[in-house]
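Archive entry. Fields below.
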Amino acid sequence: MFAHQDSETRFDHPNYIILKQQKPTESELEILGILWERGASTVREVHEKLAETKEAGYTTTLKLMQIMYEKGLLTRDASSKTHIYAAAVSQQETQQQLLNKMIDTVFGGSATQLVMQALGHHKSSGEELDQIRKYLSEIEKQQR
Amino acid sequence: MFAHQDSETRFDHPNYIILKQQKPTESELEILGILWERGASTVREVHEKLAETKEAGYTTTLKLMQIMYEKGLLTRDASSKTHIYAAAVSQQETQQQLLNKMIDTVFGGSATQLVMQALGHHKSSGEELDQIRKYLSEIEKQQR
DNA sequence: ATTTGTTTACGAAGATATTCGTAGATGTTC
DNA sequence: GAACATCTACGAATATCTTCGTAAACAAAT
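PREDICTED_STRUCTURE:
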């Protein structure tokens, strides 16, 4: 029911031909977030981090990560007994994908609306605001 | 499994005591988006709009909206045969809720990151950029 | 080598979301 | 009022997501 997805060839994966980045679910995003931050990690490590915020059994985390691997969201190194997983999709790409969807359905298509809403309710330091100003100028420069 | 929700009293609803804004699902968000844009509408109208992007039967849309009504996401006027639905949750509040979650899990907690990512990949007119600059100044003023 | 602990694999139950067929109510047209 | 169209209500099938128990593999400790 969600948007159609282009197929593409990939290696380093049992299926060989898999769908391009499937939309991660809620739980999957949490795990991706941890892997982006920590870099390659074991299930145990991810689970530990996860348990700080959320109640869940170890095998639940394991199963999730196995599924994510099958989907192509994670890669893994199974050379030692304790497998090591890493995110297979980039943080940037995923962010963009989710942002686009969100802008479209919830912000009536206006990225500006989203930006202002995000700025309004998050205390940003003066430094951060300056950083954004700088960024704005760059964009304007590029567009010319 | 998701964050706990405070209970609160409400009227204009069969249950009387319902949970505070449940997290809308993907499909529900699409419908909310349409209602925010169009204002109060019939199922038929929402369905028509929905069908522009998405494949779905009429009764599917109907059922969804009925469920959303039961959840308290929509209100409805059933005085005439053809019921008229409206969003019961504000666009702003919902936007903020989703943004917060997203900043937290996908942007490592940094609203600034989100803003820059959003600005980077959406062509914004010079006008819009100015609007954002103005907004930045206001925020700075308020914080002092 | 037996116990103990940690790991993966697997299957299946439970929870939630999505889809749609069918029936009955209501309204409209001829 | 009979035929037709449109609407709601309801139930159930399907699909997807989440959770976890159990077993087998493996390693380390006694």
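CURATOR_NOTE: The beta strands of chain A are 7-9, 17-19, 74-77, 84-87.
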